[in-house]
Specification:
5% of the residues lie in helices and 39% in strands. With 744 residues, the protein is mostly beta strands. It has a six-stranded antiparallel beta sheet, with no helix packed on it. A six-stranded mixed beta sheet has the order 19-50-49-46-45-53, with no helix packed on it. Strands 15-14-17-18 form a four-stranded antiparallel beta sheet, with no helix packed on it. Strand 43 and strand 44 (582-583) form a beta hairpin. The longest helix is centred in the N-terminal third of the chain and has 11 residues, at 118-128. The protein is elongated.
């Protein structure tokens, strides 16, 4: 059983429960820093209780029949500006021992001195000095004859026994606005509150955390407490009350409960059914009898209405065994360049391994990587990084290169118009290592991030560097960038030159607490500039893996300065860090903070913008999701494994910057040869149709759409036959996307 005396915990671990007598003295001797257990009757089985006051305790009496087991005394939480301590002077019964970590043994600190040597006495005094963090135990003497209650020891507070001010009859009211939030650390929660109303004076707060089997108590002067090393999914109850530090009077108790989440936030924003004034429909597109590749996680561009596909993989989801070669078999690295014309329903392909390419094996490997970052600027496709098995080093690596690809000459070579690949069609430059430690590895050594452009500046957004084989538990060589790398590109096709310059890193060294993200949807966004025009920025939605297992939920926005901003899980609002990056509201406690519920993994996506309304719409085409949505009940169902799904949603950002998510529809029912329903969208790409009006970066001008219009096509990605633990393949299926105004 457990009893609380004062601010110290006495754990009676004997099987025969002792009896204890608490003596209320005529003169109170407990100091102001001791903060007794509020001198209130214990009621751990209730929430907010009204408890009768008890006198402070300064002596403990125990019946001698206490059994053979020791009484273990552990501190609760000791506050004060100095290192507080007390001295063991005597013990009426048994032995008091102190644990010495250096020697890993218990030492008797209650023994009577046997010498007058000053040095030996000083050593004994040091042993008897009990400080915050020390561990002591009292073992009563073994007695065979019953005795009356004996005085065991005195409880003297950290004031060394000085008198205290008598208690006031007025006590603080209960704390206000008690709330819980996820912390930046793994398996942590932060409990926060506001002070009691209308109280003038100094307060201490007692916080007790209970998981149903164990509890821990802290005392703090702050209005928040971070608690770490909690178990994911286990409910914890937090009890909080205030104590007047002068009068030592305690207010009523408030409580709140929650379980640490594996995701960035323990809750998600509500998803609703689609409310737009138009519909989007999806239908399988028939390419006839022509050959279409199975391809996922590839880079792609458009030239003359034709899709140009390069890099990626030709099989499904990677494996999770201890064998890196089995998880990412090199034979499935895509070495072919594909050209697809969806209108004429023609396809062409040619292997980079063809000697007519004139490429080195290292260049071919780099352009066979998976999860590269790419961006099309005019007729140039820029490709960065990616994960690949390199023949040059006979190992897996994240390729450290920026490639500039001239689409017109590449298409001519693939189609056979040009017998050999133009010398300047593919030009590469390696990324430099950081001279100041602001980033890890080579500058372009990134996979699973995003590449966007604002003005003349390119932004390499988040992602990771992974070196060596991907195998179960192989995270030794995995480094998330947790940052945005901005730079300029100088490319001249005629001269065959490529370089980058004017590098900026935000934040320097990365910030894993906010930006440890990969395999996410990064896309350009437009918003009103307040002067009748638009301004461009970059948005990064969700991604994985929060705390190594969960999903991120709160978006990140990146301006033209390359600095990422986000609503961060912190108890302090509107804080500007040393890196100049602002942290605003707490997404776990502020209901107006958007917490993305679905489509957290990289997928096909369609961007639409209305200048009339100032609303940006990002349609997310299936993929992998933490939740699925029931369109009838409008309820979410959580998937702890973050499985594949078939649902298409839109993340909408209005003119004020407020986000919401709506469910649009599902992919059409398509079955494999075994009759299993297939799930689409992960690592796929959307290609706008040639006739669709676009504003910038492929963002569709929604105000120009007045009639039923084919917006474009989604191609490739991973197809799965069930949400979790099923079979997967790289998809060859094309979906046609049609826009239909509801007033048409």
């Amino acid at each position: 059983m457990k009893r609380f005396f004062g601010n110290k915990k006495f754990f009676f671990s004997n099987t025969v429960r002792p009896t204890a007598l608490l003596q209320a003295p005529a003169q109170q001797r407990l100091g102001s820093l001791e903060l007794l257990e509020n001198r209130l009757a214990l009621a751990a089985d209730t929430g907010t209780v009204s408890r009768p006051p008890l006198e402070q305790t300064d002596s403990v009496y125990l019946n001698s029949l206490i059994g053979p087991a020791p009484i273990i005394m552990n501190k609760s939480e000791i506050i004060g500006d100095e290192t507080n301590s007390f001295v063991i002077t005597s013990v009426a019964n048994g032995v008091v021992e102190k644990w010495l970590p250096a020697t890993e043994r218990w030492v008797n600190v209650s023994a009577v001195p046997t010498t007058s040597n000053p040095m030996e006495l000083l050593k004994l005094l040091q042993l008897r000095l009990i400080q915050q963090g020390d561990r002591i135990q009292w073992t009563p003497s073994q007695s065979t004859s019953p005795l009356d209650f004996d005085k065991a020891f005195d409880v003297v507070g950290w004031d060394d026994g000085n008198p205290i001010t008598p208690p006031s009859i007025e006590a603080p009211s209960e704390v206000q606005n008690l709330r819980l939030g996820q912390s930046e650390d793994a398996n942590s929660l932060t409990v926060s509150w506001d002070p009691p109303a209308s109280f003038v004076g100094s307060l201490n707060y007692t916080v007790t955390i209970d998981n149903g089997s164990t509890n821990t108590t802290f005392i703090t002067t702050s209005t928040s407490k971070n608690v770490s090393d909690l178990e994911t999914g286990v409910p914890y109850t937090f009890w909080v009350w205030a104590t007047d530090t002068d009068a030592h009077v305690t207010g009523p108790t408030s409580s709140i409960s929650a379980a640490p989440s594996k995701d960035q936030t323990p809750t998600f924003s509500q998803v609703t059914n689609w409310s737009g004034d138009y519909d989007l429909t999806f239908a399988e597109y028939d390419m006839g009898t022509v050959s279409v590749p199975t391809l996922q996680s590839f880079a792609g561009g458009i030239y003359n209405g034709q899709w140009v596909l390069i890099a990626g993989r030709t099989n499904g989801l990677h494996g999770f065994s201890d064998d890196g070669l089995a998880n990412f078999p090199p034979r499935y690295q895509n070495t072919d360049v594909w050209v697809i014309d969806p209108v004429s329903k023609e396809t062409w392909s040619r292997s980079l391994d063809d000697t007519s390419s004139g490429l080195t094996s290292s260049e071919i490997d780099s352009l066979s990587s998976t999860n590269t970052e790419s961006y099309q600027d005019g007729n140039t496709l820029y490709v960065v990084g990616g994960y690949v098995y390199s023949r040059a080093i006979n190992n897996f690596t994240t390729y450290n290169a920026l490639s500039a690809i001239d689409l017109p000459t590449l298409v001519d070579w693939v189609k056979g118009t040009d017998e050999t690949l133009h010398t300047n069609t593919i030009v590469q430059v390696a990324g430099e290592e950081s001279p100041d430690g602001s980033y890890d590895g080579g500058f372009f050594q990134v996979t699973g991030g995003g590449l966007e452009k604002i003005g003349d500046r390119y932004q390499l957004v988040f992602g990771q560097k992974f070196e060596g084989p991907y195998a179960h538990g192989s995270t030794t060589f995995q480094v998330y960038t947790s940052q945005v790398r901005s730079f300029d590109i100088d490319y001249d096709f005629t001269n065959g030159t490529l370089s980058y310059s004017n590098v900026d890193i935000a934040p320097s060294g990365g910030d894993p607490s906010r930006f440890r993200r990969r395999d996410l949807n990064v896309f350009p966004i437009l918003s009103p500039d307040g002067q009748g025009g638009t301004t461009q920025s970059t948005a990064a939605l969700a991604g994985v893996f929060y705390n190594g297992v969960g999903v991120w939920t709160v978006p990140v926005e990146i301006g033209s300065d390359g600095i990422p901003t986000t609503e961060n899980p912190t108890t302090e609002p509107d804080v500007i860090g040393s890196d100049g990056i602002p942290t605003t509201e707490n997404p776990t406690t502020e209901p107006d903070v958007f917490r993305q519920a679905m489509n957290q993994y990289e997928s096909g996506k369609i961007g639409l913008y209305s200048q009339n309304s100032g609303e940006m719409t990002q349609v997310l085409l299936g993929g992998i999701s933490a939740n699925t949505f029931d369109s009838v009940t409008e309820q979410l169902t959580y998937d702890e494994n973050n499985g594949f799904h078939r649902q298409i949603t839109a993340v909408l950002r209005d003119a004020s910057g407020t986000y919401q998510q709506q469910y649009i529809t599902d992919f059409p029912d398509i079955y494999d040869g075994n009759g299993k329903l297939l799930y689409f969208g992960a690592n796929a790409r959307f290609f706008p149709a040639t006739h669709v009006p676009v504003l910038t970066d492929g963002i569709i001008n929604m105000d120009s759409l007045t009639t039923e219009t084919v917006l474009g096509y989604m191609f490739g990605g991973i197809a799965a036959d069930q949400p979790n633990f099923g079979n997967t393949v790289a998809s060859s299926i094309i979906f046609e996307v049609t826009y239909t105004p509801r007033n048409a």
